[in-house]
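The protein record quoted for completeness.
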Amino acid sequence: MAETRSITLLCLTSFFKGTAFLEEAHRLGCRVLLLTREKLKEREWPWESIDEVYYMPDLFNVQDVINAVSYLARSQKIDRIVALDDYDVMTAASLREHLRIPGIGETTIRYFRDKLAMRHQAREYGIPVPDFVGVINYDEIRSFMKQVPPPWVLKPRTEAGAIGIKKVSSEEEFWRLVERLGDRQSYYLLEKFLPGDVYHVDSIIWERTVQFALPSGYARPPMNVAHEGGIFITRTLKPKSPEFKALIQLNEKVLEALGMVRGVTHLEYIRSREDGRFYFLEAAARVGGANIVELVEAASGLNLWREWARIEVANARGEAYQLPQAVQRHAGLILCLARQEWPDTSAYTDPEIVWRMKKRYHAGLIVASDNYDRVSELLADYEQRFARDFLAVQPPVESVDQMDE
């Protein structure tokens, strides 16, 4: 029997994002509570869709957040807790466990946040992953380095994207880096550097079944763009291509192995230049960053933020989620850091442009067409023009404190 009372959603986010989720939850008749950081007070939140907002200095101290939300729960009946940002998914899981609220718990969420946990789980299910070892036991690390020749990649287990990742060329370099990490070293893993093309698959899952999945390919690996600077490009794959089919199949296996029940996910894969195989890289129980939501919407007509809200509400009400009819178009996204505070893209006038970025010191466009080659042609042209018109380069981000709000 579906519930008749209003559903209350508590949304956590350490960064300004998820406005479409908040709007859709409100449209569906939910009571929407937002918990975010004080420094985001002045951002353009959809205030008409938010019933109450609460601020904390930050959301990184889990115990402080548990105390604050537990106090809130004395007077508010919270039905679901949703983390809109990757940095808050572990906190949201801890809150669900503490308050006994349905949703992903602490064990499962580690498979979507902890790079070491997700690799172990995938390998146990026979899914190819690059060779790796946790930076925990020194004898195991030495054995790994003898068996797997450099270069390697030293990765933080719970950072987002390419933050804090370092390419390592020798044992001496590795041990120097580990010594600097001190007590933080067990929060890292060491992995074989695997040259290849990187892909992402963005999915909608309902009751352990993948309802929708869209594979796309990066022009350059995100780690290269983050560390070396340059222009970020990704585009959807041809539905009948071998890459598309292989990624759809592998993506379903990975999501089953990681135990995803319902929600949206962003998973990344690499096709090795050495053997041509696809390897699982990492998973996130959230929408993709870098405006990939807009790319997916341009290609399919589906907004992943809104579908995520519909899934949370349907589950809370005991109803079935119904995936809307998707369209099939080809789409591509291009963006970069810009020299100008507010870059002017008005000189880009092609009718295939369906989205323009509006963000300080960033330039970005999305193109969509029924013609795959037309999308490829536009992206190639825009890459050269962006380099001339806008491109700026800055040192790579090393911690969450340096991230743009």
